[in-house]
Amino acid sequence: MRDSIAMVSNEQNFQSRIDAEEKVEPKDWMPEKYRQNLIRQISQHAHSEVIGEQPEGKWITRAPTLERKAILMAKVQDEAGHGLYLYASAETLGVTRDELIDRLHTGASKYASIFNYPSLTWADIGAIGWLVDSAAIVNQVSLQNTSYGPYARAMVRICKEESFHQRQGYNIMMTLMQGAELQQDMAQDALNRWWWPSLMMFGPHDAESAHSAQSMKWKIKRRSNDELRQQFVDQAVQQAEAIGLTVPDPDLHWNEARGHYDFGEIDWREFQRVVSGNGPCNRQRLAHHVDAHKEGAWVREAMAAFDAKQRTPPAEVA
Ligand code: FAQ
Prior knowledge:
- The chain has 318 residues and is mainly α.
- It has helices at residues 2-19, 32-51, 53-57, 66-91, 97-106, 122-143, 149-177, 181-200, 212-217, 225-242, 268-278, 282-295, 297-311; strands spanning 253-255, 260-262.
- It has 13 helices and two strands, in the order ααααααααααββααα.
- Strand 1 and strand 2 form a beta hairpin.
- Helix 2 (32-51) packs antiparallel against helix 4, helix 4 (66-91) packs antiparallel against helix 7 (149-177) and helix 6 (122-143) runs parallel beside helix 8.
- Phenylacetyl coenzyme A binds at residues 40-41, 44-45, 48-49, 52, 56, 79, 110, 112-113, 128, 132-133, 136, 139, 200-204, 209-212, 215, 221, 225, 275.
């Protein structure tokens, strides 16, 4: 009885701190469901950053110029760094890196659906940087104010790097649109294929979103899936028009009364298919990660042995 009263008062104090915009730090008391929900979201975010290296990494050897190659290498390396900040942030919640990777490999933990689509041409690298990084920024800017301190601080740095990623992607699209007809067609084709999956990045509609209500109450999420998606559409449509691209949505039009673009319905069956593991590249993406993880085992072992040696006190001299 006393335990359950203490728990209620802990939860009330916790919610008061959240309401007062205080950050929650790793050693603070937190409800178990808050901890689990954060581990879920942060680790899925981390997996997305790392799996997201694959569609772009494939193009490093095929980049059209040395400058583009150097930029793409830097971007892909940044994504690995984002994964690192996020895994480290999840670990502060008492879960190990091995457990997190295991959940990815067994399918218990998700990653963003967008990375299960193939990158078929160089223009896809433009579309990913422009659209996927834009969508990531729109979401992550709001997450800079998430209630969990380590996650919020990781977001500040990640957002700065994502801005550069977004600009390099848009710059690729702009350059293609200033080129020959074939290049313009390639850019339009990439937009046609990446537009709808980019809208899916924000998750199901608010009314269908399983975690939103509680995550908003705990200020893990600061803005809803639909709000963020609308902001993304409003800015991307104007960016597309500025360089002569057409957004592939016949229902898209400016709604004067709302002050926003209205847009067509997402194909949620496709979303479900991809999220449940049956998208065009799900198996390939996961298999590649499993193989890379196995190949890297000796590096992890060497690092662990070195770390253990550093921690061993030197033997006393007789
Ligand atoms: N794909 O109740 P909700 C990037 C799942 S980073 C797959 O609305 P929540 C950088 C969701 O997990 C991109 N699954 O969930 C980059 C849940 O399943 P669960 C990643 C999705 O968490 C660029 C279920 O559906 N960004 O791109 C998706 O409240 C270029 C119900 O959904 C983040 O992760 C989806 N699109 O809201 C890297 C940001 N949407 O866990 C390389 C942080 C939903 O119950 C190259 N995450 N699901 O099994 C978030 O803001 C949230 O987790 C949402 C989903 C908004 C993604």
